[in-house]
Amino acid sequence: MVEVRVLGTAGAASQEELFYVTNDGQKIVRAAVYDIQQNPFREDLDKLKTEFQPSLGTPGAPVVLVLFSDFQCSFCKEEARMLRQNLIAAYPTQVRLYFKDFPLEQIHPWAKPAAIAGRCVFRQNPTAFWPFHDWLFENQTSMTAENLRAKVLEYGKNHDLDVAQLTRCVDNRSTENEVNRSMAEARALQVNSTPTLFVNGRRITSHISWPALKQIIDFELEYQKTAKNAGETACCSQKLPTPLK
């Protein structure tokens, strides 16, 4: 068998698929190969970076959710509402949620400026990010590329943010590199749509209902009782050996 990787692209989107071809070239197998001694989601877990990202929930929680989202995406709005209404209420200590930006610039003209503004709010006051996140989604249908700046600054005035600092950050696009890094991470993970959610590395590529997500979280919590190869510690850091050990 010969391993063949095929990369397909369409505009800025891309996806790589792995195939196995018999030596005589007559048969092609499309399959994923897993080492049963390793977490099957390890490759994606190693690419997910959550340090300095907006988050909710308990540090060190056994179940870690990483959400790639787009403020102009209607399905992302539904996912955001579902998560905000249910996640922490159902699992006050067992989960941690991280928010990552993946604005689809080709079809959503104000998504990236909104992501930049969100990072400006987060940089100024991390606890203010989630109310701002909720406000953006709640007012999604009234936002345009032309009125976004004015609405964001008006929001800042009404919610005790430093408006001068917020204005400089938005106008100078001071947080654009942070958004770009999040977007690059999404592409490295071959994320092609929003919302895309990772639950301890398990990829969910479309909007999911709360009962279905709860079932996955409950499974992960049960699994964590006997295994420690997912969750917060696996997601975000790697300890390297030292000469003293």
Q: Quick one: how many beta strands?
A: 8
What's the mean pLDDT score? Answer: 87
Multimerization status: single chain
Report the major sheet. Answer: 5 strands, mixed
Q: Estimate what percentage of residues fall within beta strands.
A: 15-25%
Rg, rounded, reads 20 Å
Largest sheet, spatial ordering of strands? 4-6-5-7-8
What is the tally of helical segments? 9
Contiguous low-pLDDT stretches (5 residues minimum) are: 236-245
Report the span from N to C terminus: 41 Å
Question: Which shape, going by the Cα principal axes?
Answer: globular
Order of helices and strands: EEEHEEHEHHHHHEEHH
The chain-level structural class is alpha+beta
Q: Helicity level, as a percent range?
A: 40-55%
Give an account of the 3D structure:
By secondary structure, the chain is an alpha+beta fold. The protein has nine helices and eight strands. The protein has a five-stranded mixed beta sheet. Helix 5 runs antiparallel to helix 6. The longest helix has 17 residues.
Provide key terms for this protein:
245 residues; alpha+beta; five-stranded mixed sheet; three-stranded antiparallel sheet; 42% helix
Helix-strand blueprint:
Blueprint (H helix, E strand, L loop, with lengths): L1 E9 L2 E9 L6 E3 L11 H6 L7 E3 L5 E7 L4 H17 L4 E7 L9 H14 L4 H10 L9 H11 L4 H10 L3 H13 L7 E4 L2 E3 L5 H15 L6 H6 L9
Parallel strand pairs: 5-6
Antiparallel strand pairs: 1-2, 2-3, 4-6, 5-7, 7-8
Brief rundown of the structure:
This protein has helices at residues 42-47, 74-90, 111-124, 129-138, 148-158, 163-172, 176-188, 210-224, 231-236, and strands spanning 2-10, 13-21, 28-30, 55-57, 63-69, 95-101, 196-199, 202-204.
